[in-house]
Amino acid sequence: MGSTRPAIRDTAQRTGTHKRSAVVAALMLAMALAALDATIVSTAVPQIVGDLGGFSVFSWLFSGYLLAVTVTLPVYGKLSDTFGRKPVLIAGAALFLLGSLLCAVAWNMGALIAFRIVQGLGGGALQGTVQTLAADLYPLKERPKIQSKLSTVWAVSAVAGPGVGGVLAAYANWRWIFLINLPVGVVALWLIVRYLHEPQRTKDAGARTTATRARVDWAGALAVFACGGALLTALVQGGVAWPWLSVPSIALFATGLALAVVVVIVERRAADPIIPGWVWRRRTIAAVNLALGALGLLMVAPTVFLPTYAQSVLGLAPVAAGFVLSVWTLSWPVSAAFSQHVYRRIGFRNTAMLGIGAASLILLAFPFLPYPGQAWQPTLLMLLLGAALGLFQLPLIVGVQSTVGWSERGTTTASVLFCRQTGQTLGAALFGAVANGVLASRLGGASDLDSVTRALDSGSAAPEATRRAIADAVHAVYLGASAAAALAFLMLLLLIPRRFPVLKEDDSRTTDGDLGVGR
Hints:
Elements: H1 11-15, H2 17-42, H3 45-52, H4 60-83, H5 85-104, H6 109-137, H7 143-171, H8 176-179, H9 181-195, E1 202-205, E2 208-211, H10 218-237, H11 247-269, H12 278-281, H13 283-312, H14 318-326, H15 328-346, H16 348-365, H17 376-401, H18 406-443, H19 449-457, H20 464-495
Antiparallel strand pairs: 1-2
Helix pairs in contact: 2-6, 2-7, 2-9, 4-5, 4-6, 4-10, 4-18, 5-6, 5-9, 6-7, 6-18, 7-15, 10-11, 10-18, 13-14, 13-17, 13-18, 13-20, 14-17, 15-16, 15-17, 16-17, 16-20, 18-20
């Protein structure tokens, strides 16, 4: 693809200050659609299963959506670089709203799962394109403003989602958790159509400027989608729907690896591949991808296992257990907003290393909490963990987006989000196996965390041995998360250059030190 000529004003200049505020509001609404999705649906599962049945497969309400979002991120990233952010965002939002409407009229669990996948196909466009537009709209020095606003959307959604979903399911009908997306999405779409204006893409052709003819690597897109779908399904369902060494698990992994070979062959031959080789050849982008993949992996420890620990070991009610987890969503956006003052002094890499180093120590402290302990102890650790990860994630995203121009920013952003999502999927499978292994060794037999927690939820008393076994299992998971954080620290230290190769706003190459954000 050709690049945007320097003479053409960028998205932020064309949008204007007052219009930019409207676009930012649209981006926050669009991000809220994706951010609310998981938390608002989870609280209505009992009502959904009671109405539609399908208890044995209801987990696909989440797995199907997650798979669709993850495997489409690279595709949408490339499409946004090819056709522009606006058409991709509009198409993604429309697809998400269509999926929401279909979910609201689903007649059985199979139909609802299929429509959730449709939602996920749109959700991939929302997550990737919103993050890319955030970088387009603001110059480097102002970029933390929009990123902290988007982080706040995720924080508010994490806290408000369960409550909203519970109220709608209890006092209205579970179908309203999908219908509520429609007015929010329509407002976001109207603001985007009305106020977002992007520059015309052009390229140099000798002494003349000619319109760029977009070419889409549809074969690569299909191969990436199929490969990602097979491998992620194997990771999500392995050890849950079937044993790890069963025929379905082995078949999916073998199919995924074969398709990975196909992806490499197709992408090497493509003139304009969906996943360009430069994403992994450029040292900074590759290292950030790996580091944020480790972030996705370590995030599984608190998000998946801490609520079980709080209820089973500390004896908290579900609402109180949710509060223990949610406090990190309060400190994360505050720390992210503050991080700009840090990386302007010591640089993107050093700020991220400070954050992930602190996160590793905080995660390592969790297994040393007294047993059974008090609720304020893990709550304090989660508050500190959110602050540490805010210092880690935002400088890396802002930094890596600033190393590429407009025509590569969508692909770069999508690769970062794809690696983080893949890390979460891998973390759920890996840490789930670790927790189940510890439980089996402590309790004997084929005990696993899901069966133990279901027994406790049914009203069975928790024997002391069971409580200690759950505590040991969660402690082992947190040790693994601490190791993942330490690995991310080493990747930043050894792979990322001391100064990010930041581009000036006119696309002339410089370093973060020249912009006053590094030493």
